[in-house]
């Protein structure tokens, strides 16, 4: 079967740059890599085909030969072939593209960078509405794995030590030759560490870590909301073999408030007023997160009217200088379910007066307008 054109294999133009060729190869290689297509012979062949095309086109000299002679440039009777080509930098490029397949390592010394990062942790923190608004500091106790004191984190029993992994000879990787290139996979015997524990520590079962409770102070900034997460870098579980510690994610659970509803940095509350206060006007005290504040109610206020109190809302998260939203007060006229005899008498008299006043004014009221609409 005749070989396909290398440019066609990578789906690039003949004028493509080295970066464009590398990008195209990355896409093909990720798609057809044997680790992602186990047992798929067709995918493996396409992977090899793409790698061969990339090997020829990524090198300036090889590409020039190919552009001039085609595949004949690399045959036994051509211009030297791949046997004479220089692939000294190919392993590094291959490792850069497939770092995720090979445990995050590139070319060079396979034992470099074997440290494993520690696990991230999550802690659910309950706080009050006011604590979310103005910030707070909480001291919590969390359980996380720490270095075992019995074995100093080595995982080996007292008087023994870790040994070099016989499977990978301490490299942490197993290298497999496939054609003209080499694949590297993490050693399953030592999980890429390069060392094994023959006599595990009884205290930590050879893991080198034990669960310990530790106290931690969590600073909650002003303006956080329910469901938000705080990230505390390096406060997760410790890494192994020199790896970085994981992070702690604090999930905030904010308790609802009896009086206030929150809309981002704005606060909303409802306050009842009497009919007399709405009609005549007055000054009332309304609740805020910092105590009672005075609010002027003008005469003729309708039920459902919303008043704004500037700067009495929630602090804006991360603002500097700190800004605050507003508080919105919705008033509604409270209608009592029971009336005293005196209240009933006065309201009946008021009803008579208002009825007479409407008649004398000769203006169309609500019911007159309704009659016009539906007549």
Description:
This protein has helices at residues 6-10, 18-32, 41-57, 60-69, 90-97, 129-134, 275-280, 341-361, 366-374, and strands spanning 121-127, 136-147, 163-164, 173-178, 181-186, 195-196, 209-220, 229-232, 248-254, 261-263, 266-273, 282-288, 291-297, 306-309, 327-333. It is an alpha+beta fold. Among the domains are: 6-87, Helix Hairpins (Orthogonal Bundle), CATH 1.10.287.110; 121-162 and 197-254, HSP40/DNAj peptide-binding domain (Sandwich); 261-335, HSP40/DNAj peptide-binding domain (Sandwich), CATH 2.60.260.20. Strand 4 (173-178) and strand 5 form a beta hairpin. The longest helix is centred in the last third of the chain and has 21 residues, at 341-361. The model is unreliable at 76-113 and 357-362 (pLDDT under 50).
Helix content: 25-40%
Question: Distance between the terminal alpha carbons, to the nearest Å?
Answer: 90 Å
Largest sheet: number of strands, sense, barrel closure:
4 strands, mixed
* Order of neighbouring strands in the sheet with most strands: 10-11-15-14
Please state the overall shape, judged from the principal axes of the Cα atoms: elongated
Which parts are unreliable, with pLDDT below 50 for 5 consecutive residues or more? Answer: 76-113, 357-362
Name of the top-level CATH class of the domain at 121-162 and 197-254: Mainly Beta
What is the SS-derived class?
alpha+beta
Strand content: 25-35%
The CATH topology of the domain at 121-162 and 197-254 is given as HSP40/DNAj peptide-binding domain
Give the H and E element order.
HHHHHEHEEEEEEEEEEHEEEEHH
Number of H- or I-type helical stretches? 9
Overall mean pLDDT: 78
What's the gyration radius in Å?
38 Å
Number of strands: 15
Give the full name of the CATH homologous superfamily of the domain at 121-162 and 197-254: Urease metallochaperone UreE, N-terminal domain
CATH architecture of the domain at 121-162 and 197-254: Sandwich
């Amino acid at each position: 079967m005749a070989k396909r054109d290398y440019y066609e294999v990578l789906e690039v133009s003949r004028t493509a740059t080295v970066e464009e060729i590398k990008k195209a190869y990355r896409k093909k290689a990720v798609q057809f890599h044997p680790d992602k297509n186990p047992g798929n012979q067709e995918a493996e062949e396409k992977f090899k085909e793409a790698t061969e095309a990339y090997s020829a086109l990524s090198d300036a000299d090889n590409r020039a030969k190919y552009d001039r002679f085609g595949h004949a440039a690399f045959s036994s009777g051509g211009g030297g072939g791949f046997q004479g080509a220089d692939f000294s930098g190919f392993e590094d490029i291959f490792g850069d593209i497939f770092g995720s397949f090979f445990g995050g390592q590139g070319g060079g010394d396979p034992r470099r960078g074997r440290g494993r990062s520690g696990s991230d942790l999550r802690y659910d923190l309950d706080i009050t509405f006011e604590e979310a608004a103005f910030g707070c500091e909480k001291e919590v106790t969390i359980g996380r794995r720490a270095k075992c004191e019995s074995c100093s984190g080595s995982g080996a029993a007292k008087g023994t030590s870790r040994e070099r992994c016989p499977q990978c000879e301490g490299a942490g990787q197993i290298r497999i030759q496939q054609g003209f290139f080499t694949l590297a996979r993490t050693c399953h015997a030592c999980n890429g560490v390069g060392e094994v524990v023959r006599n595990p520590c009884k205290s930590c079962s050879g893991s080198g870590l034990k669960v310990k409770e530790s106290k931690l102070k969590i600073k909650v900034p002003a303006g956080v909301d329910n469901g938000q997460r705080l990230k505390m870098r390096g406060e997760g579980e410790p890494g192994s073999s020199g790896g970085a510690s994981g992070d702690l994610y604090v999930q905030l659970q904010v308790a609802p408030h009896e009086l206030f509803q929150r809309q981002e940095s704005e606060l909303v509350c409802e306050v009842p007023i009497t009919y007399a206060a709405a009609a005549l006007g007055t000054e009332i005290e309304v609740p805020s997160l910092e105590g009672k504040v005075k609010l002027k109610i003008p005469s003729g206020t309708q039920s459902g009217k919303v008043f704004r109190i500037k700067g009495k809302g929630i602090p804006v998260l991360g603002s500097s200088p700190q800004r605050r939203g507003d508080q919105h007060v919705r008033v509604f006229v409270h209608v009592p379910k029971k009336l005293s005899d005196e209240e009933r008498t006065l309201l009946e008299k008021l009803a008579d007066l208002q009825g007479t006043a409407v008649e004398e004014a000769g203006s169309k009221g609500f019911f007159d307008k309704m009659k016009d609409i539906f007549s």
